[in-house]
Amino acid sequence: HSGFVSIIGRPNVGKSTFMNRVLGEKIAIMSPKAQTTRNKINGIYTTDDAQIVFVDTPGVHKPKNELDNYMDTAALSTLNQVDAVLFMVPADERPGAGDQYIMSQLANVTKPVYLVVNKIDLIQPDDLLPFIDHYRHGHDFAGVYPISATEGNNVDELLSDLTSKL
Ligand code: GDP
Ligand code: MG
C-alpha cells in the first residue's frame, strides 16, 4: 500500500497539525496565524505494510493578490497529481464561501476525495451530522472522517482506511 495524498483546506483548519500527528514529529510549521505554510511540504508515513507521502499545502482561499494566487496554484496543482485528496474542514466553524470555492475546484478532481472534519473536540456530537450533510450535498466524497488532530480521535481509523485503499 503506497501513494501520494494531498491535504487541502482553508487556512487554520488544522492541516499541519494533522500531518505532524501522523508523522509523529514537527515537520510542517503550525501556527494560529493564517498561511504559515508558504509552500508544499511533504512528509512520509511509513509502517510495515504501507508508505504514504503526505503533501501539506498552503491554505486555499479566493486569491486577492499575486502571493495568494501563487499559493493557491501550489495547493490546487497537487490535486490531480496525487492518489487521494483529504479535504479538511473545521467542525467548529460554519461552512462558508472559502469552502465553497475549494469544493468548486474539487469538482475537477478525478481521484478519491475524503472529507476530514477536524476539531470535533470543540463541538457537541449532535451538531456533527447536519454539518457533514451540508458538505455531502456539494461533493460525492469517497469517505467522511470526523477527527481531532490535537486530541487524536479517529486519526488511526482514517490512516488504516486510507492505507487499505492505496
Ligand atoms: P493549517 O493552517 O490548516 O495548517 O492549520 P494548523 O495546523 O496550523 O492549525 C491551526 C490552529 O488550529 C492551531 O492553533 C492548532 O492548534 C489548532 N487545531 C488544529 N487541529 C485542532 C483540533 O483538532 N482541535 C482543536 N481544538 N484545535 C486544533
Ligand atoms: Mg499549515
**Oligomeric form:** single chain
Query: H/E element string?
Result: EHEEHEHEHEH
Q: What amount of the residues lies in strands?
A: 15-25%
Shape: globular
* Strand arrangement across the biggest beta sheet: 2-3-1-4-5-6
Overall tally of domains: 1
- CATH homologous superfamily heading: P-loop containing nucleotide triphosphate hydrolases
Name the bound molecules: guanosine-5'-diphosphate, magnesium ion
By CATH, the topology is Rossmann fold
The separation of the N and C termini measures 5 Å
Instruction: Please give the largest β-sheet.
Output: 6 strands, mixed
Q: Identify the CATH class.
A: Alpha Beta
Secondary structure tally, helices = 5
Alpha carbon gyration radius: 15 Å
Structural class: alpha/beta
Q: How many DSSP-defined strands?
A: 6
At CATH level 2, the architecture is 3-Layer(aba) Sandwich
